[in-house]
Amino acid sequence: MKITDIPSQYLSNALFHFAAPTMTRVDEMLATLNAFGPQHHAFLPWSIGPHHRSAVAENMQEAMDNFSRQENELKFLIIDNQSQRLLGCISLFLKNPAIPACELGYWLAVEAEGRGVMTQACEQMTAMALALFAPKRLEITTAGRNQRSAAVALRCGYLLEARLKHHRTDSYGEVDDTLIYTWPLS
Description:
Blueprint: E1 16-19, H1 26-34, H2 38-43, H3 53-69, E2 73-80, E3 86-96, E4 101-108, H4 117-133, E5 137-143, H5 147-155, E6 159-169, E7 175-182
Parallel strand pairs: 4-5
Antiparallel strand pairs: 1-2, 2-3, 3-4, 5-7, 6-7
């Protein structure tokens, strides 16, 4: 898949636009990841740094490969329209093409939090997933204590389908539930 294959109404709004993964953003991604704080670290175990350029470049290359082959994880960079800075990432995980089933995953840069960016990005990615992949299952999975991520799912119209009690541990070893939100499909 090329970013140019996606209709433009799914790729931008007044605040930001989605961009395909690119090696030109590796240094900015590295700085963004290394600026993560405790909120990120508690719920995104991979976020604990320090991150190194070689690992970020390797991850970006894998994202580019997945994007071009349209498999596994389609990672979109969220880019501010005014500053052209990286605000975060939102991914569409192609979990089971036979169903088809997809999952959204996302994170924001510290300075982008609290501006409604992720709610808008989630709404756009949901619309894109429904239009391009026609999934029979579309979900968001989050830690039980991650109230901000859960609030995004609810604001976007996802419904709480399940709470898996004592299902995960966070980066600090604390036991938590897993919440599964699904898009209301028939």
